[in-house]
Amino acid sequence: MRVFARTPLDISKVIVPRGQVHLIPERCKGCEICVQFCPQNVLCISEERNQKGYRIPMVIPGKETECVNCEFCTLVCPEFAIFTLPWNGDHDG
User: Fold this and answer.
1) 31-86 to CATH, choices 3.30.70, 3.30.60, 1.10.10, 2.60.40
2) What is the pTM assigned to this prediction?
């Protein structure tokens, strides 16, 4: 994972990984752990609810390309409801 607090001198040579967030709504219990611990602040809780009535997370509009595929949301989710995959730059997925 490469998240920089400062800009490295060789930033033009560094390729920052990108990811795409995927959610399995039926598994989500709305605990918001993924939202609280996302290092890029890409997630928020939506008004949408799953079948159990829990509000589910979503990618903040306009931040679709800011996920760095660190997979931290995957690690902290107690229900295994969220995961990321490498993003190839295509808007179609």
Assistant:
1) 3.30.70
2) 0.79
